[in-house]
Amino acid sequence: MKKVLCVFLSVLLIFSVGVTGYAANPDEIPALKAKFIDGAGPAVNGLSVDYVYFAPDAPAGAKLPLVVYFHGAGQGSAPRAQIEENNFSLWASDEIQGRFTGGGAFLFVPRSHEENGDYWNDGYVASVKAAVDDFIAKNADRIDLARIYVGGFSMGGKMTLKMASSYPTFFAAAFPLCPAYAPSDEQIEAIADLPVWLIVSRFDIIAGYYTFSEDIWNTLCEKTNVPADCRLTLFGRVKYPDGKYTQSNHFVWFALANDLFTYDGGKYPNAVTTDATGREISLTYPDGVVSWLCGHTSDYAGEPTEPNGTLAGNPDEGYDRVQNILRALFPLVKDAVRSFFSDLWDRITAPISFDFSSEC
Questions:
Q1: Distance CA 213, CA 161 (A)
Q2: How big is the CA angle at 263 (ends 261 and 265), to the nearest 5 degrees?
């Protein structure tokens, strides 16, 4: 049931919440996006994933971490949309890059080909891994293999959990945001040794805490071997870093893009962070998600890695079929709802007239 709900909410997000997200000085955003370079991975089973990446300046011989980040629904319709339609480019800013140990990090942002009706389907797991491996091979002298991190929001949170549970020894940490996904117990068991930071709002009606993340967090707390290294940031109503309310409580990625701090480095409003032991954690600027990532390394040293098979036990079976049906029905539902509320608004705002001409 949750899988069908995931499909519906993903489609709902595409049609009703497709808002470009900027959480920084508008003058800075275009320059940051322009720093991302186009690339494409090798074809696996006929699927080649295109991506954009940011390469930091680094002293000769320095090896820096790699962050793989997955976009949400509605942001993969064309090449570069995955960086143009959200504010993750802020992680290329001098401010955020300076928080990484060594002075920077590579940022790798692949794209799910939504123009083909793909929404981080299972087949993308192998193709994305091949693209990442190819990218690492091309930058072998600059990437620290022990510091490969993976994260993403909404539909990208789903892909984060798919990738992390399929290749748990490849990544050093994972940070899924409002994941629209119901991983199996076997998938959670696969990441029992992996530090995971889950970020979500309890009031999110798209892919919120009570929809998916509560089960994910409770199962993770039960099965993790590193409870002090796992975190949950639970928002109430979600705000931008400037204190204004976002258009949806699904928009927790605005906070992530600013490393869970306000513009002036203060505590992010309406957010409580705990670890898997139940201990509350107070984030103090500038030690947010980036600092947490930098505190974790893996034992991965470049050896070939194959998927562990856990995804096969929880396939996205029927996802495309149900999604296509919902996508066809949604415009009709949307128009009906819009018409209803438009008529209701007209009735509420209609001027009240009184006829005083009749005799008593």
A1: 12
A2: 50
Task: Tell me the pLDDT tens digit for each residue of 293-343.
Answer: 999 999 999 999 999 999 999 998 644 444 444 444 444 444 444 445 545
> Any idea which residue has 């869970």 for tokens?
260
- The strand pairing partners of 66, in sequence order, are 106, 148
- Please report, as a single letter, which amino acid is at residue 271: A
Amino acid, res. 72: G
Structure-token pair, residue 340: 């209803």
Token pair for 34: 């322009």
The span from the first CA to the last CA of the chain, in angstroms, equals 62
- What's the DSSP call for residue 211? I
Max intra-chain CA distance, the chain: 96
Measure the CA angle with vertex 37, ends 110 and 294; round to 5°. 65
CA dist., res. 125 & res. 123, Å (int): 6
Q: Which position has the token pair 């504010």?
A: 87
Convert the pLDDT of each residue in 126-179 to its tens digit. 999 999 999 999 999 999 999 999 999 999 999 999 999 999 999 999 999 999
Residue type, 304: P
Q: What's the chain's length in residues?
A: 360
pTM score, two decimals? 0.85
3-state SS, one letter per residue, for 250-292: CCCHHHHHCCCECCCCCECCCEEEEECCCCEECCECCECHHHH
Residue 102 to residue 322: CA distance in whole angstroms: 46
Cα distance between residue 180 and residue 349, in whole Å:
38
DSSP 3-state percent helix, strand, coil across the chain (nearest 5) = 35, 20, 45
Residue range 5-20: average pLDDT? Answer: 45
Residue 50 neighbours by CB distance under 10 Å: 17
Hey, which bits of 78-182 come out as E strands? 106-110, 143-153, 173-177
Tokens of 299: 């034992």
Nearby residues of 62 by Cβ (< 8 Å), 6 or more positions away: 102, 103, 142
Cα(203)–Cα(252) distance, integer angstroms: 11
Question: Would you give the DSSP letter of residue 312?
Answer: G
Backbone angles phi, psi at 55, to 5 degrees: -110, 115
pLDDT digits (tens, 9 = 90+) for 238-284: 999 999 999 999 999 999 999 999 989 999 999 999 999 999 999 99
